[in-house]
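Hi R.,

Here's the input for the zinc ion complex you asked about:
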Amino acid sequence: MMHQEHRESVCNILAIETSCDETSVAIVQNGKHVLSNLVSSQIETHKAFGGVVPEVASRKHVETITLMIEQAVEQSGLTLDDVSAVAVTEGPGLVGALLVGIMAAKSVAFALDKPLIGTHHIAGHIYANNLTADIVYPALALVVSGGHTELVLLEREGQFRLIGSTRDDAVGEAYDKVARALGFPYPGGPYVDRLAMEAESAVELPRAWLEPDSYDFSLSGLKSAVLNVVNQKKMRGEEPMTAEIARGFQESVVEVLVEKAIRAVKAYDVRQLLLCGGVAVNKGLRRTLTERCEREGIELLIPPFEYCTDNAAMIGAAAYLKWKTGEFSDLRIKGDPSLSLEKWSTASIG
Ligand code: KG4
Ligand code: ZN
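And here is the predicted structure with zinc ion in place:
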């Protein structure tokens, strides 16, 4: 649906994100200025189950979403009348969780008679980089989250081309599984990261390079290798060497991510590398990638912590792309767990 007539010079997007276990509502002006960004994490609720329980996630979103919308508007200093459009994560994510945000967004958009912008969650993670810096094109994004591990080429603003992705587990998922094997609660990524940084030595683990020209990733072999080491230690009644295993795992993951990203930066001759997603807070990855980019003279953007983990401000940043092209969503949209990032690319202007 095209609604070009809705275009104003100031655009205040009310953005909603409920794709997984964070309920978040933000008001973002012109895709850049975060006027408010509220995040309510359900981690404590899901911890008892060792992972996200979809039905529980949906229920929690329902409980909090209305109040959070009110509070986000209040904290922004604006009123609902100032809202130019309503954006919501349309996918990927847990379908029941997505639907809660979508229903809320549709209701607000309908009541205010403002356009609805169904937004891609990964486009959000990528455009989180635009909230505190300016993305320069062509750019390459290394997306590392609980559900995604991808290299995405952006030849121009709003155009996404997938050049590599994981063939099995996502990085965050692998971190969580390894953490569980090492005895840590969900989500275990931060525990493994901390231990890895403290460890004095590393257990030698394999690197999944795949075919020489491939930009794809594979993490299940590494995860199995970790589980083997853990089980062997247990069977022999030896010291678990938790820290050394964490460091070995992190070194393997980081080395492959960094090498492939740098190779792609050179092959596609991009002007910036954008790191994003929940795992972008990982200290080992940030440090190695920063050092490597400095050495190679590559400009690297990494969003601040609060815009790396799931949040609605990033959805507002990505939705602004569609505001500019006037590509709005039908009020009949449903959550799409496998929404394609490439297809979500904006129409080119001019
Ligand atoms: O992007 P995100 O907030 O949610 C998804 O869209 O998936 O990412 C969450 C993931 C979890 O798997 C969590 O364990 C991982 O990010 N994570 C980390 C770290 N902090 C969070 N993984 C490695 N190191 C960390 N410091
Ligand atoms: Zn995410």
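One thing worth noting: Strands lie at 12-17, 22-29, 33-41, 85-91, 116-120, 139-144, 149-154, 161-165, 272-276, 299-301.

Cheers,
M.
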